[in-house]
Amino acid sequence: MKIRYALIVVCLFLVSITSHAVTTLTLGHIMAPDHPQDKACEFFATRVKSLSKGRIEIDVHGEARLGDSKTMLRALQNGSLDLSVNTQGPVATIVPEFSAFSMPFLFPDAVSAWRVLDGPVGQQLIQKSAAKGVIILGFVGQRNPAFLQFCPSASQTDRFGRFEVPHFT
Question: Which domains, and CATH codes, for the chain?
Fold first, then answer.
């Protein structure tokens, strides 16, 4: 009877430990503190922690502390970095079609750019990136879109969607 009781207590203890496990993800970007992108990353981290009821925390590292954009992109591909915010330049090194977004006057306004990224073209770019080992969770941007990526172990269903960086003056 005592052994049975001890096993029940141990099982309950193990269940309580695993139900409170926290996953910490690392997010890198190149911008300085208080830059709109940094503020958006901090907001994203806070929102993920809130929506996951504290089970997922995101440790934000700005100022290129984890390397430049290309280095972080390679780290995403090899799984040594969880999340990164990059512009189309570095992303175009693995999916050349992204270089189109650096063309001047491609879109008449931001609404048109977001319409393209939120539509079939954006979905094709997301799929091409996934095939190269980088999962795009969403597009972010102040004026020009940037890309929030996730490590290759994520699935397309893990997308958090798009969030825009407000213009801070």
Answer: 2-158 (3.40.190.170)
